[in-house]
Amino acid sequence: MPRFPEDLPMFVNPEIPIDALPSADAVEWHALDARFVRCRQARNIVRTLILFAIIGVAHAVVANVPKLADVGWVLPWLWALSVVRLAWSVYWPVVDIPRRGYAVRDKDILYKAGVFWRSVSAVPYNRVQHAETGNSPIERRFGLARLTVFTAGTAAGDLRIDGLDEANAERLRIFVVGKVRGEDDLAATTVDAESAVGIVSA
Q1: Which of the ends of the chain has fewer CB neighbours closer than 10 A, N or C?
Q2: Is residue 80 located within the same domain as residue 152?
Q3: What is the pLDDT of residue 96?
């Protein structure tokens, strides 16, 4: 039988006390841009107006086609639900968005969200394939962008942070890409510590 030198290091797997784990309260969370509330409200209002238009067309069709008179009772309910949806779509971003946030650390990037069901996502840089920024026409109108981080084997993105100032989103993308490439010096010179973790515009 083969013999192994006695001085070879043995595999060890020591237990870590729960009290020694880092506290979640120690994470320095950064809020999304304040303009994101108005941006999300504007998007929701546009969607609701489209719904109003669809219901309006349906109302006109029912009113002019006698055979559809039996389903006319549904229309008042649709209008009422649409009004409720409009009110909710304006109110909800005020509650939801302030509870979102992100944190940039040396080894990973974190994102938290949720009002009733809260979640915290962490993506280590050594799993990241690439990162990209983008925005919709409404987001461009408000000067906002989103950062999407992709890991191996995913097409939709493992981490998406909406509601960032366009300049901050691009700085974060450069920082993450620098970390992925192992270019810590490049990341440090391109993004200083304060801008990397997010300078939130009022």
Answers
A1: N
A2: no
A3: 95
Residues 137, 166, single domain; the answer is yes
Q: What is the pTM of this model?
A: 0.73
First-to-last alpha carbon distance for the chain, in angstroms, is: 71
Q: Is residue 57 part of a domain?
A: yes
Q: How many domains does the chain have?
A: 2
Residues 74 and 107 in one domain: no
CB 115 within 8 A of CB 94: no
Tell me: do 90 and 115 sit in the same domain.
no
Say yes or no: 125 and 181 in one domain: yes
Q: What is the mean pLDDT of the chain?
A: 83
Q: Tens of pLDDT along 38-53?
A: 999 999 999 999 999 9
pLDDT over 50 (residue 176): yes
How many other C-beta atoms can be found within 10 angstroms of the C-beta atom of residue 193? 9
Q: Which of 191, 164, 161, 163 minimizes the C-alpha distance to 176?
A: 191
108-113 sheet: strands from edge to edge = 30-31, 101-104, 108-113, 119-124
Residue at 108: amino acid letter? D
Q: What is the pLDDT of residues 1-52, one digit of tens each?
A: 555 556 666 777 788 787 777 666 678 899 999 999 999 999 999 999 999 9
Range of the domain at 49: 35-96
Would you say residue 127 lies in a domain? yes
Q: Is the separation of the CB atoms in 103 and 109 below 8 Å?
A: yes
Of 78 and 20, the structure prediction assigns the larger pLDDT to 78
